[in-house]
Design brief:
The complex is a heterotrimer of chains A (about 525), B (about 325) and C (about 325). By secondary structure, chain A is α+β, with helices and mostly antiparallel strands. Helices cover about 30% and strands about 20% of the residues of chain A. By secondary structure, chain B is mostly helical. The two termini of chain B are about 35 Å apart. In chain B, about 55% of the residues are buried. Classes of the chains: A alpha+beta (about 525), B mainly alpha (about 325), C mainly alpha (about 325).
Chain lengths: ~525, ~325, ~325
């Protein structure tokens, strides 16, 4: 095994032993899992499809990962665990990944699960999954020496690949149902057939999705609950009310307004969980349009950075549910450079920088005018935009906030590029080469593609660092490469990174084991049981 | 809430009962008549004698005064974050009505919001009135093919749910005070058009019009100079109701997050405070109360105008 | 002209006018919607949090969004001619199926709301007319006006907080208790529990209008000769009120109800959002946000059909109610 793999293996087995010890302690104190019951879970907004092979919206991942499974599952530290693959092996040069698959697994329609399904699914992911194209870019083929073994062969190393095989990110779909016809219009996208602990029962659009227990699940004895009901509740106040009345037991990705959490957690039956979002790792940032005549000057951007106080964003905008992150790789990641401190909140310095850059105050009036757009997803970016307007007014920049709905925003920022600067949130995902690279890589300046390189930032050194890190198998070297990258973009400031919002899961205390891994509610919930 | 502009009257299919409806809505009093010449003074006196209309006028005047004096009593930008968030009303002597989730002054928001809400309401109603009056006047006066065509166009606009039309127009433009007022105006002109058309159809064959024609007045002069002033009473009544419903529609838009983010409106305050409904319900209650009072004032005024102008209208038909 | 001829004339006139109107609606709305920036592929990509040029292209090709606008209009019209409303990118289902699945919910909600409002409105209006000019009339008038002036979403939110959370009497949203397969009477009771709050919220707006209408019409009719005759004949006052006065007051009321029924699709959008009611109003709102033009056009077409149907129904009803109409 390559160096990092051995170290990982030792750590993960050690961790597994430790967590087994802990959990057995916990088990000794807790009762044994009870069988039966219906779990009422929130799904918001309603997903367009129930299979995440070509749709990566959060709700689709949540819905898909209960019915379809991936090769691997993960613990809280993103260390892989067995799911459809029972053991795996990476060649020393990082170009061959051999997976031994679980035996006696059946699809919900009775057909046996084989390596042919794995090969087909990975090919499909590579062609139609929004991230699959880059995640599996180096994959040359997936060979299947026998029905139990699948080998992924690469042209170049992909150190992040093992982390990308979760049920949500890379679901394994049945070849016998998807091989014929167009996978995008396959009816099983809305009535999935998988290998997972739950079977699809019904979908009443606008209201609910019902899954029922799979009695033939390969992990005998699980799941413990009889059925899983996803409820669609678009109104935030109604969701809070539903948690209070017990109509909802579980909800993830900030199911209720953050300002409502302190009140709800005072109720004896509700509890908050912040673990289980490592696969998403959201980041709130401000993107500058580097082609703008005023904003192309780095001193102006630095002045803006000095005028905005990330602590206010953390405490007021995010209600305290965030960690300050001056770099695009968030503090939770092992690649985060902790030596970089956020730009100091310093109004005087900001004013000086603007004067030096050649934009003095014009006798009592503002220095110049800017338009600020915000991502209309949830409430956070709108409030951040309001704060930006207020904060920049202090240093003499007159900001007009522009509001629009999601498609208009995406078209404006990514297709037409008619923006000055914007408050936006991105998911930095489970590895920087998957989630962060796309924002700073000059080869990802693609008009019309959302969440690409919006500032049009182009730095040859950064490009080289990113490209090297994406194929570097030595973990120490990889960390060093990413730290260098962070230092450069911190200085160049095409994007002002503010905070990493901590997503919250709200649960009724009767729901046990809903968050047992880094996948959180995107896990398969096979371990969940209801104590009441 | 039926966010459509409330249609208090529909007249236009020539059905006897629809005309009866217009009459019924505009009052059932066979009160004393006032000669046309002393019309305006008579209207005013009738209004002032009506206690609810009087209350409406007083309330409306108070709001207008608040709108005008807002910059004086609450200088600065009401969108500034000035204090700690979520302060309850009465807890901070500087901010009597408390602060919102970003630490903005609620009282300043209400005061400055009066301006914007009244402005949007008035301009939206104005746009609707202008378009509707033009369409109704032309159709009602000329009749024939032009009228048929205009009636069809009116019906076309009426079959599209007006709230959806507003949202679509705002999505095409972008949420700003101008676009919102325009959108609401475009969605609400059919009501006025129908009323004006009915009036014109009734009036175009009356004596004073014949007299004007025989004197050789041009069509335009007859329409705008002779008939329109006589057709105004139901339009005026509808105007106040339209302002009220425009304010309600704008509040719905802001509640759904589609308002103008650069100004403070009452609806916007409710929308922003919606997330904290359970803990900081004053953020919803105070602007909501402002909306209710302003709309109530306009409706009371509309009622009063209806009662005051009604006898003359019934006299003529 | 007797009734049957009258009915036939109305039906013929309606059919003649309906077709071009609906066609005009489709064309007008199509161009209006195309003016909105962005398309369904943008929305799907944006919500997914990632996209590539290839996946966007594939999405656009799948839904025909990369064709020129007139081409898309032609395709839509030809679908329409074959009785299909098209396919929804957002919901991945035929539009007809989507709309039909939500139509009963909207009908239930609006039907309940209008019925409640009519009953309450007539009662209130009759009370107000009986004590016209005295304090019950004044108080009720102000109350009616107050209800009319209050934003519906505000009432809705407060109703949820009071009846659902604090008192626990009624559910906070949705149309049925999901997962509990109920049948027969239990099912009906469950639906009734869910529709009550949203219907009452919607009704508060209409009650005011109907009450005032009834009051005005009753006052108008009370003074007429045939009422005095009825009284003079010695008929019981209540019978006079109900059979003669009220029946004639129903005319303007039915006109108003007809208008409201015709606008029932868009008007409930906000209430449906607050109560998570799976109706057509919310579907249309979501369709605008998701640039799902097929769904939106389908809803708008249906709405125009509903207006036409409502107009006809009201005309027929009034012809029946009042034999004087010829």
């Amino acid at each position: 095994m390559a160096g990092f793999e051995r170290r990982d293996f030792l750590i993960s087995s050690g961790a597994a032993l430790a967590s087994a010890g802990l959990s057995s302690l916990a088990f000794a104190q807790e009762a044994a899992p009870k069988r039966g019951g219906t779990l009422n879970m929130l799904i918001n907004p309603e997903p367009p499809v129930l299979v995440s092979i070509f749709q990566t919206t959060g709700p689709a991942l949540v819905a898909s990962s209960k019915v379809l499974e991936g090769l691997l599952a993960y613990d809280f530290d993103l260390k892989p665990k067995a799911q459809l693959a029972t053991s795996w092996n990476v060649s020393p040069d990082g170009l061959k990944y051999t997976f031994t698959l679980r035996q006696n697994v059946k699809w919900h329609d009775g057909e046996p699960f084989t390596s042919a399904d794995v090969a087909f699914s990975i090919d499909l992911l590579k062609s139609i999954h929004p991230r699959g194209r880059s995640t599996f870019a180096n994959v040359t083929r997936v060979s299947t020496p026998d029905a139990r073994t699948a080998v992924i062969e690469l042209s170049k190393p992909a150190p992040y690949l093992l982390k990308a095989l979760s049920a949500g990110e890379s679901p394994i779909v049945p070849k016998h149902l998807y091989a014929n016809g167009d996978p995008l219009t396959n009816p099983h996208n809305n009535a999935p057939i998988g290998t997972g602990p739950f079977r699809f029962k019904s979908w009443t659009r606008g209201a609910s999705i019902v899954y029922e227990r799979n009695p033939d699940y390969w992990d005998a004895g699980k799941p413990y609950i009889d059925s899983l009901v996803f409820k669609v509740i678009p109104d935030a106040a109604a969701r809070s009310a539903a948690f209070e009345t017990g109509a909802l037991d579980l909800g993830g990705e900030n199911p209720v307004p953050l300002s409502d959490l302190p009140r709800l957690t005072q109720l004896p039956q509700l509890a908050v969980e912040t673990r289980g979002y490592r696969f998403l790792e959201p980041l709130s940032e401000i993107d500058f349009n580097l082609d703008h005549p005023i904003l192309k000057d780095v001193r102006v951007r630095q002045a803006i950075a000095h005028a905005i106080n990330p602590q206010i964003v953390q405490k007021t905008i995010a209600y305290g549910y965030a960690d300050i992150s001056p770099t695009p790789i968030t503090p939770a990641s092992p690649y985060h450079d902790a030596k970089l401190a956020p730009y100091a909140f310093d109004i005087a310095n900001a004013e000086k920088l603007l004067d030096v850059a050649g934009y003095p105050r014009k006798d009592g009036g503002p220095r110049f005018q800017l338009t600020h757009d915000f991502l209309p997803y949830g409430d956070m970016y709108r409030r951040q935009a309001d704060y930006v307007k207020s904060a920049l007014a202090r240093v003499g920049i007159d900001v007009t906030v522009r509001s629009q709905d999601l498609p208009s925003f995406l078209k404006r920022v990514y297709a037409d590029r008619q923006f000055d600067f914007t408050s936006i949130g991105v998911n930095t995902l489970f590895d920087p080469s998957v989630g962060v690279q796309r924002l700073y890589w000059s080869k990802n300046i693609r008009p019309g593609v959302p969440f690409s390189n919006a500032p049009h930032y182009s730095n040859a050194q950064v490009d080289t660092l990113l490209e090297s890190a994406s194929i570097e198998t030595d973990e120490k070297k990889r960390v060093a490469l990413y730290q260098q990258f962070q230092q450069i973009v911190y200085r160049d400031l095409p994007i002002l990174n503010l905070v990493a919002p901590r997503m919250v899961t709200l649960a009724n205390r009767r729901v046990r084991n809903h968050t047992v891994s880094a996948q959180g509610l995107e896990g398969n919930l096979a371990d969940v049981w209801l104590s009441a | 809430m039926a966010s459509d502009s409330p249609e208090l009257a529909s007249s236009g299919h020539g059905s006897a009962w629809r005309r009866q409806l217009a009459g019924a809505l505009f009052g059932a009093r066979r009160a004393q008549t006032a000669p046309y010449a002393r019309a305006s003074r008579g209207v005013w006196r009738a209004l002032l004698r009506n206690p609810s209309a009087l209350a409406g006028i007083v309330l409306l005047t108070a709001f207008i005064a608040l709108a005008l004096c807002a910059p004086h009593f609450f200088p600065g930008d009401p969108l500034d974050m000035v204090a700690a968030p979520f302060e309850w009303p009465g807890s901070d002597p500087l901010y009597r009505l408390g602060t919102d989730s970003l630490g903005r002054d609620v009282a300043a928001g209400i005061a400055h919001g009066t301006r914007v809400s009244l402005l949007i309401g008035a301009s939206a109603a104005g746009i609707g009135l202008v378009i509707g009056t033009l369409v109704g006047a032309i159709g009602g006066f000329f009749g024939g093919v032009i009228d048929d065509l205009l009636v069809r166009v009116t019906e076309l606009f009426q079959t599209v749910p007006s709230f959806l039309l507003v949202i679509v127009i705002v999505a095409i433009g972008r949420p700003s005070v101008t676009v919102i007022a325009l959108a609401i105006g475009i969605a609400s002109w059919p009501t006025v058009a129908r009323i004006v058309r009915a009036e014109f159809r009734t009036l175009r064959s009356s004596d004073f019009v014949l007299a004007a024609r025989s004197q050789g007045f041009s069509d335009a002069r007859i329409i705008f100079g002779e008939i329109l002033p006589n057709a105004l009473p139901p339009v005026i009544v509808t105007a106040s109701v339209m302002v009220a419903s425009a304010i309600l529609i704008e509040s719905s838009l802001s509640f759904l997050g589609m308002g103008d983010p650069n100004v403070v409106t009452w609806g916007g305050m409710i929308g922003a405070g919606r997330d904290s409904l359970r803990t900081a319900w004053y953020l919803t209650a105070v602007p909501g109360a402002a909306i209710v009072l302003a709309v109530l004032a306009l409706n009371l005024l509309g009622d009063g105008l209806n009662d005051a102008l009604n006898p003359r209208m019934r006299e003529r038909s | 002209m007797n009734r049957r001829t009258r009915f036939a004339a109305i039906a013929r006139r309606t059919a003649w006018q309906a077709l071009p109107t609906m066609l005009a609606i489709v064309v007008l709305n199509f161009f209006l919607l195309k003016l909105m920036p962005g398309d369904a592929a943008d929305v799907l990509a944006g919500e997914a949090g990632s996209a590539t040029v290839e996946t966007l292209q594939a999405l656009r090709a799948k839904f025909g969004l990369d064709q020129p606008v007139l081409h898309q209009l032609g395709a839509y019209l030809s679908h329409l001619a074959h009785g299909s409303l098209g396919y929804s990118p957002r919901y991945d289902a035929p539009v007809m199926q989507l709309i039909l699945s939500r139509l009963p919910n909207t009908l239930l909600l609006m039907g309940t709301a209008l019925s409640l409002a009519i009953v309450a409105g007539i009662v209130l209006g009759a009370v107000m007319a009986h004590w016209a000019g005295k304090w019950p009339d004044r108080v009720l008038s102000v109350l009616a006006l107050l209800l009319y002036s209050t934003p519906g979403f505000w009432i809705g939110l407060l109703a949820i907080v009071l009846f659902s959370v604090h008192l626990g009497w009624l559910p906070s949203g949705g149309d049925i208790t999901v997962g509990a397969s109920l049948h027969g009477f239990a099912y009906a009771a469950d639906v009734a529990k869910h529709v009550l709050l949203p219907a009452v919220t919607l009704a508060t707006f209409f009650v005011a209008i109907y009450a005032r209408l009834t009051r005005a019409a009753m006052l108008e009719v009370k003074r007429q000769d045939f009422v005095r005759t009825a009284h003079a004949k010695g008929l019981h006052p209540l019978r006079v009120t109900v059979r003669h006065v009220l029946r004639n007051a129903l005319m303007p009321l039915t006109t108003m109800v007809g208008i409201h029924f015709g606008t029932l699709l868009g008007g409930a959008a906000v209430t449906e959002t607050v109560f998570s009611w799976p109706g057509l109003g919310r579907l249309a709102l979501d369709a605008v946000m998701a640039r799902d033009f097929s769904v939106l056009l389908g809803v708008l077409l249906l709405s125009s059909l509903l207006v036409i149907v409502a107009n006809v129904a009201v005309d027929l009803l009034q012809a029946w109610l009042d034999p004087r109409i010829v």
